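Q: Got a minute? One more chain.
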Amino acid sequence: MPCNFTAGGDDFDVDAFLSAHTVAPNDAWRRGEQCRSGKLRSWSGFTLVASEADFSDLDRQVQDVNAFMQRNTSWLQALVLYPGADFTSFDFGVEVPSGTVIPSVYFPPDLVKAAGHIGIGLQASIYWPLSALDEPTNA
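A: Always. Here it is, folded:
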């Protein structure tokens, strides 16, 4: 997973927002629609790729997201203020080294400041390398 940007909310009119702004999401959904799991969506929103850098390249993801925010400041600011848009976040996919006991992810101040200035959250989804999943454990 690259770094994805996600926005939405219970009462977010995703179609109205997307038609008013030049945003090309990977996916958009509406509250009440059925998702792949068969459950009904509890909120409306959209997601798009903010960085295609690899899981193992957090530095590149950070650079890409900083550039993404600079290029898209106008509609990102409009989104944060848009009625019903209760959630906005960059989700960084981060691979942690095999054997890491407590993974931590460091976000540099310039990224935190830029995202915070707009009103966007930062999160990290932690992924273990596939090879780590195959390693035997001593029980």
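A: Residues 3-134 form one domain.
Q: Perfect, thanks.
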